[in-house]
Amino acid sequence: MELTGKVALITGGSNGIGAAAARRLASLGAHVVVADVDADQGKAVADEIGGVFVRCDVTVPSDSADAVSAAVREFGGLDIAFLNAGIGTGCTLGDDFDVEKYRRAMAINLDGVVYGIHYALPELLKRGGQAIATASMAGLMPTAGDPVYGANKAAVVALMRALAGAHPEVRMNALCPGFSDTNIIVRLRSTLEEIGMPIIPVSAVVDAFMSIVEGSGTGEAWFVQSGRPSEPFGFRNPPGPRAADGSRIAAAQKDPISIVLKEK
Ligand SMILES: NC(=O)c1ccc[n+]([C@@H]2O[C@H](COP(=O)([O-])OP(=O)(O)OC[C@H]3O[C@@H](n4cnc5c(N)ncnc54)[C@H](O)[C@@H]3O)[C@@H](O)[C@H]2O)c1
Fold it and tell me: Would the CB of 64 count as within 6 Å of ligand 1?
């Protein structure tokens, strides 16, 4: 795919999946804004690919706004917003529950995506662009080892599916990798190896990311798992209301909240 002239903003672009996506997009001709709290790595990635680094803490709304402004100022607009910054939370409930750890995990993994899309949306609308958020397999399945991570990643999946309906002019999708070869799994690596859990190369995660970029779908959550091609996860339709005689109700296809909000 030729991306010459396209502009991408990548949060968490200094390392791992974000940095690899930055390199791939730049190799296809895109201008990339690398937005991250890790300035040393971020500047190095930006310099390498002829992009721009912006120090951005995704938990701070004005930082997300500044990152979008940088894309417009430096490269004239925004076509791809990749909301990818994230952390493993290590936050347990019960005796060891730590409110600060919990709030920080939600702030980076969920608020960061909300703020990023909020500020990118006006620019994405101008150019018919797209937003992709990095969720996780943990957002598609129970994650007993890190329930708070599972919760904020499931929220990211739900957010992108809902935003796809709310903003049909901008493609909104989630990327859901399994265990991938980045800094986030450093503490897990030896256990993953011991139990025989394959670790996904970052290039495979970026392949899936590019399938989304190049595709046409919206409201999808693409899983990335070892040994199988990535594709949108097939959600089952949830049960809708039924009439007393058990027949379907036409209104179940409508979204009453949207109707009420439009009328106000
Ligand atoms: N590697 C995996 O196994 C895996 C699996 C599923 C999902 N993910 C998700 O992929 C995304 C990228 O992670 P990764 O695996 O490349 O890990 P990584 O640690 O290599 O990269 C994460 C990046 O996010 C940045 N970051 C952290 N807090 C930030 C903040 N407040 N503001 C801005 N940037 C911040 C870090 O500096 C880092 O550059 C994350 O959302 C992560 O949850 C990773």
Answer: no
